[in-house]
Amino acid sequence: MLVLKTQVMVNLQTTLFIWLLIKGVFCGQWAAWMPQTISALQETCVAIPCRFDYPEELRPSSVHGIWYFNSPYPKNHPPVVLKSKTSTTHETYQGRTKFLGELQQKNCSLQIERITTDIQGKYYFRADLGGYNQYTFSEHSILEIMDKPSVLSPPEILIDSEIELTCLVPDNCPNMKPSLSWLGVEGLRQHSIFGRLEEDDGTWTVLSLLRFLPSQKDNGHRVGCKVSYPDTVLEYHRFLTLDVKHAPKIVEVNSSLETTEGAHVVLICVVESNPISQVTWLKYETILKQEASGNLTLELDNVSNSHDGIYTCVAENEYGKVNKSLGLAVMYAPWKPTMNSSALVVEGDYLTIFCSTQGNPEPIMSIMKDQMVLKRVVYESEILLEIPVVNDEDDGEYWCTAENQYGYSNSSFSLTVEFAPVVLPDSKCTAGRDSVQCICIVKSNPESTIVFELPNRNLTINETDRGFVYSERNGYTISSVLSLRGEMESEILILCSATNIYGTKMKELPFHSPSSQLWAKFGPVGAVFVFVILIAVGGYMIKTRKKDTMNESSSFIQPENPPVAYRSDYTTQKNLEKSENEFHSISEKMLLNQRERLSDLDVSYANIDFSKLCMKDSYTSTEELAEYAEIRVK
Ligand SMILES: *[C@@H]1O[C@H](CO)[C@@H](O)[C@H](O)[C@H]1NC(C)=O
Ligand SMILES: *[C@@H]1O[C@H](CO)[C@@H](O)[C@H](O)[C@H]1NC(C)=O
Ligand SMILES: *[C@@H]1O[C@H](CO)[C@@H](O)[C@H](O)[C@H]1NC(C)=O
Ligand SMILES: *[C@@H]1O[C@H](CO)[C@@H](O)[C@H](O)[C@H]1NC(C)=O
Ligand SMILES: *[C@@H]1O[C@H](CO)[C@@H](O)[C@H](O)[C@H]1NC(C)=O
Ligand SMILES: *[C@@H]1O[C@H](CO)[C@@H](O)[C@H](O)[C@H]1NC(C)=O
Ligand SMILES: *[C@@H]1O[C@H](CO)[C@@H](O)[C@H](O)[C@H]1NC(C)=O
C-alpha cells in the first residue's frame, strides 16, 4: 500500500536539490540512496532510482554492480536480479531488468518490466569495484506490487457537504505513463476532477481528485477509478460504494384523517436515513411504538373516541431528528346525555336544567317536554334550560336529546312542581228539578282537601262525608262531586274550597242549567257515579235500608271534551273503567261508614234505595240517572 508522507508537490528542481544534498552528505563513503519503498501495478514496470558512492581513494578502473532480491549477502545465494559484469540473472528476471543509468556515474537505477506479484520484496544493490572492493549496501528498496489503484475517501461522507475522493497510482516507470479516469460520476452533483503528480522519497504518484456534493440518492452508488496505460491493453479499476450519511427524512406518512368508532386504522411512516433511524410513533408525549427501522406501521384496532388526537412520527439518527404529525378524528354518536336527577321544586322557584354529553362532531342538543322543544343548541355538548319562575305547567318529564350524523341518544328528567290549589273553571253546579249536583275540579300538588260550603245553610261538607261527596283523583287533579237532593231556592250559594300546604283557594260554583243540550250533546263518559242525598233542613229523619244486591254501576256524567287547558288531567276511558270497579268496593265501605256515622248522630231512620240504580247506558241523561236515597230525620 502506497502511503503518501507528503502532500506537497515537489517539482523536479527540488528533487535535484535533494539529490545534490544527499550526494554531498555521502561523498567519499560507501553509501547508497534509493527509495525505501516503491510501488507498481502488476504487469507494468518500475524504475527504482538509485545512486551510490564509494571512498574516493579507491579510484576503480571499472565499476560493476549486482542487484539481489531479498538478501544482501552473496553467500546466501539470493536471486540475482541484474548483474552488469555477466548476464547471469535469475530466470525470473531474465529479459525483464536493466540498468537505467551509468554505473560509472554512480547511477544504479534499476528498471523491472512486466511485474508480477512474486517479485515483491526487498532489492539490494552490491557495488563491485574489482578485487575485494565489493560492497553490499544496507540501504534497500521494498518493491510493492498492487493489483489496482488506491482510492482514498474521507472517513465520513455527509450529505450536502463537498467531498474529495482521491485515486492514486504509482508512476515510477519512465516508459509507461498511467492515465486516470473516474467511472460512474455522471450523476454526481457539482462534480469536478483534477489531476496531480506527487513525489515522495524519490517515487512518483499520479493522483486524480474527484470533488462533488453528495446527495441522498448517491448513497450506495458506486464510483470507480480506472487506470489505463496508453498503447497497452492494461486496465485497472477500483470501485467505491458511497456511504452518504444523512439525517432522516420522513418520505411518507398519512395525512390527518377521520374515522368512525370500531374501525381498524393503519398509520404508516416511511423514513429514509443513513444510518438507519430510530422511528417512534407518539400520541402527544406517549410513545406508542418504537423501532430502528425505515418503515414503522402503527395499527389501531377497534378505534374508540380515546384514540382521537394528534399522532406524531419521529425519526432520529446521529445526524438529525425530524417529525411529522397527523390528526386522527374519531367520529361517534353522542353519548347518553347526563342530566339532573329528578327534582322537586315549589312553584315560583328559580330552576335550571342542565344536560351534557359527548359526541364527535359536536351534536345538536335539545331539551324537550311534551314533544315541544324548549331549547336547542347546535354543535355544543352542553345545554342549560333556565326557568326563572316555575309554575305548575312546568311539572313533568323533560327529555334531553343529542344528535349528530352518527347517531342519537337521550335522557329524561322528571320535575315535580308543588303548587297551591287552583280551582279549574269547569267547576260548577247543575240544578235539576229537585236536585243539585256540583263538581269542583281542583289542581294542586300536594293533593288538596276539598270542602264544599253552603254558607246560607251553615253547612260544610268535606270528603269524609262519603255519602255526599265523591272524589276522583287523576294526577294532580281532584274532581269532587257533591250531590244534593231536595227543594232548594234557586239562588243557593255553594262554595268550593281547596287547601294544601301552599294555600287555600275558594270559588263560588256557578250554576249551570241542565236543560242545556250540552250533556246530551257530549254524552257521558265511562263510569259515572251518583249519590243522591236529601238534606232536609230542620228536623231529620233518617231511614237506612241495606241493599244487598249492590252490583249496579252508578253514573256520573262529565263532558267528554273538557277544556284543553287541563285536558291531559282527565284519564282515558280505560282508567275510568278501572275507577268504576274500584267504586264497587268503595261504595260498600261507604254504606257502612254512612250507617255508622248516622247512628252516631243518633239517627233514627235512614233509607237509601239503590234498587233503581241499574246499569245505565252511556247516553242516559243526568235527570234519568238522578235516583236517590232518602234520608229522613224526624
Ligand atoms: C540515472 O540515469 C538515468 C538515465 O540517464 C537518469 O534518467 C536518472 O535520472 C539517473 N538517476 C540518478 C539517480 O542519477
Ligand atoms: C395510511 O397510508 C397508507 C399508505 O398510503 C395506507 O395504506 C393506509 O390505508 C393509510 N391509513 C389510513 C388510516 O388511511
Ligand atoms: C371494541 O371496543 C368496545 C368498547 O371499547 C367493546 O365494547 C367492543 O367489544 C370492542 N370490539 C371488539 C371487536 O373488540
Ligand atoms: C417536531 O418538530 C418540531 C420542530 O420541527 C418541534 O418543535 C417539536 O417539538 C417536534 N415534536 C416532537 C414530538 O418531537
Ligand atoms: C341541575 O344541574 C345543574 C348543574 O349540575 C345545577 O346547577 C342545577 O341546579 C340542577 N338543577 C336541578 C333542578 O337540580
Ligand atoms: C248559622 O250559625 C250561626 C251561629 O253558629 C247563627 O248565628 C246563624 O243564624 C245560623 N244561620 C242559619 C241560616 O242557620
Ligand atoms: C270534614 O268534616 C268532618 C265532620 O264534618 C270534620 O270532623 C273534619 O275535620 C273535616 N275535615 C276537613 C279536612 O275539613
From TrEMBL:
InterPro entries: CD80_C2-set, Ig-like_dom, Ig-like_dom_sf, Ig-like_fold, Ig_I-set, Ig_sub, Ig_sub2, SIGLEC. It is a single-pass type I membrane protein. GO terms for biological process: cell adhesion. CDD domains: Ig (cd00096). Signal peptide: none annotated. The chain crosses the membrane at residues 518-542. Belongs to the immunoglobulin superfamily. SIGLEC (sialic acid binding Ig-like lectin) family. This is Myelin-associated glycoprotein. The gene is MAG.
